[in-house]
Structure of non-specific serine/threonine protein kinase:
Amino acid sequence: MARKIGSRYTAHQILGRGSAGTVWLGTGPEGDVAVKLLREDLASDQDLVERFVQERSALLCLDHPRVVGVRDLVVDGNDLALVMDLVRGTDLRTRLEHERRLAPEAAVAIAADVAEALAAAHAAGIVHRDVKPENVLLDALAPTGPGGAPPALLTDFGVAKLIDSPRRTRATSIIGTPDYLAPEIVEGLPPRASVDIYALATVLYELLAGFTPFGGGHPGAVLRRHVTETVAPLPGIPDELWQLIHQCLAKAPASRLRAAEMAARLQELLPSLSGLPPLDIDEHSEAAYAEEAEAEPAATTPAPLQEGVGAVPLVHSGAGPDSNRDTHTSMRVPGADELAGGAHGTARTPRATGEPRAGSARNQRGHQEAARRRRLKLGAAAVGVGVVVAVGGWLATSDSETGSLPAPGARYTTGP
Ligand SMILES: Nc1ncnc2c1ncn2[C@@H]1O[C@H](COP(=O)(O)OP(=O)(O)OP(=O)(O)O)[C@@H](O)[C@H]1O
């Protein structure tokens, strides 16, 4: 069923749904387009509409072959829409669900494309803030590159920032996707370009391993791991590739590579990865390396939390856009020792040696799990971008990580 979007565009068919809205295949004066129609509650948010208009020129100016271009922003009655280049293909999450792990060459080729997109954005002063496989589109019509990887394009530029209005996310809140959130965001610092590098390194790790380095279990536990845990090398990973990932996952933002440098280093690595099969991460080695990672002390001591700013939302069930969503009444900001896994702050249930972490992404297997993630993702999308998670409750009361498992790509707002 076709519907008009503004005076210039017609939306014909739904391509997919995300937490911020629905993406349609559409047509406009210049041919086929993708139209992201934002959710009604976002579209009726006056503050967001103003920001939408203010950001218009910044979003429209980002023109790069690795970026899904935003062609137009439409504000029309109740409709708020981003008109984008149409990419015919799939997103990287879908590909990962089919293949579980990518061969290093293909994974690195895709990551190099995304790093190039980020380099262009950062040079223009734009931080993406939501780099994850869902936001990487694979162009099925273009010739494939190294390792048979289709060219990758980064999408959803500026959307996190648009949605992240001061009213929606205050100082005590975090917006983003837990698995890919840089530790400095968890600590309440403003997002800079280096958060995108951290997220991209997380994506690259996930493409190689089949799971994210710090994911699994309650979102609060995921946030804490970003700050306190280090990762051990993936079994069989070429050393130089591991060094690069490790550097880009550094807790200290300044230690990470810049996007252009990351892109160049990834490109340089490609010839040495030619023909390598996907990493062979079996049950045993996966559990063993997870043990090793947890036994290692964090490379960097987490910075002390600023007063009133931190990982833990002051969540309440009061009025506001999220008032009908999952909320929690615990209102406590953690101390640095708690974030570091202190006696009252830990979400970890003691495990026997060799026993995989309950609910860990490291303990998730195969297509069944991927399908479950997709279902959960759809569930998360249904309740929208403003799902409020009770991280405070986790810190205050939980002794288990086995709470409901969110989709790795679900975006959360934690906060009032
Ligand atoms: N420019 C585009 N061309 C073709 N398909 C697109 C385009 N943008 C998005 N899609 C498809 O639409 C679907 C929804 O995209 P959307 O960006 O709304 O959500 P998401 O990124 O998956 O999740 P979230 O919004 O929660 O981050 C995706 O599956 C994606 O494949």
